[in-house]
Amino acid sequence: MKIIPTIASLLCFASVGLLVGCGLGAPKATTVGGTVIGLIGTSSVVLMNNSDVLPIHSDGPFHFNTESNARYNITVNAQPDGQTCIVANGSGYTPTDGSSVTNVTVTCSASVRVGGFVSGLLSPATVVLQDNGTDDITVSANGAFTFPIPIPNTLAYAVTIKTQPAGQTCVVTNGSGVADTSNSTVANDVIVTCAGNTVGGTISGLASGATVVLQDNGANDLTVTANGAFTFSGTLTTGAAFAVIVRTQPVGQTCTVTNATGVIDPNNATTGNNNVIVTCV
Predict the structure, then answer these.
(1) Burial class (CB in 10 A: 0-12, 13-18, 19+), 156
(2) pLDDT for residue 21
(3) Long-range contacts: 138-142, Cβ < 8 Å, 24+?
């Protein structure tokens, strides 16, 4: 006898959404997990699958309880001390037949937290530092600082100024390198030095014994008696304009100013507001 399939039976094969209604049953209990590799000593890593949290204290297999055809997304909720763990094959859907997922791999390796020291920051100013273009930290006082995200051993770090403090310019020394767990000082010797936003530059050609009086913004006078670097007193806020002129020429000479005007730019201090050039002939 020839069996003619019904519309309902055809829909069972055509639509995953009708699996339960076609008699294939409710979701089945299953697990999703894999293996942790490289965890050191008594360190613990805390994994998370969606909202489920699972502390892991040693290398070996792990699993989360879930159900078939369920979305899973395994991430690191808390890193172990001195290490960074990375998840591979951590997201997807569990099989509809109720079989387990076992190919998630969590690999842990030694890591270093990058840090250093800030000096010269005025209260109540703040400076925002950034490591590797993503890890931000706001520093509001002089002293030691440490970025929250650890850098795995042998990987690079690069510390920059993301946001300068108002009225100051901060520069970074020893800001880049490679994380080295065998030398803890490597990742803690970043030096951030902050100073007021000043206007200055260099003067040349001034005759011995001569004096020239410079002026910034029509009010701030500076008497210069020797060739070399000069700096106007006081500081200006970021974005403020400056305009340097020769107020009083030296006897028997004429001094001219190059790069005399501009705007305070803390990200370009060495070639901007501190690059005024005075030439005397």
Answers:
(1) exposed
(2) 45
(3) 139/192, 142/117, 142/118
Distances in Å between the Cα of 192 and the Cα atoms of 53, 159, 186 are 38, 10, 15
Nearest to 8 by CA among 18, 17, 124: 18
Q: Which of 147, 168, 144, 135 is nearest to 234 (CA)?
A: 168
72-119 tens-digit pLDDT: 999 999 999 889 999 999 999 999 999 999 999 999 999 888 999 999
Alpha carbon 169 to its chain centroid, in Å, reads: 19
Q: Which helix (H) or strand (E) holds 268?
A: none
The Cα 243–Cα 265 span in angstroms is 14
* pLDDT tens digits, one per residue of 189-214: 899 998 878 899 999 999 999 999 99
Give the three-class secondary structure for 181.
coil
Look at residue 217 and give its three-state secondary structure. coil
What lies within 8 Å, CB to CB, of 71 at 6+ separation is 50, 91, 92, 93
Which tokens go with 232? Answer: 């106007």
Distance set, CA 166 to CA 83, 123, 128, 195, 265 (Å): 36, 11, 11, 11, 11
CA dist 73 and 191 (Å) reads 39
- In the numeric block, which tokens belong to residue 263? 């705007």
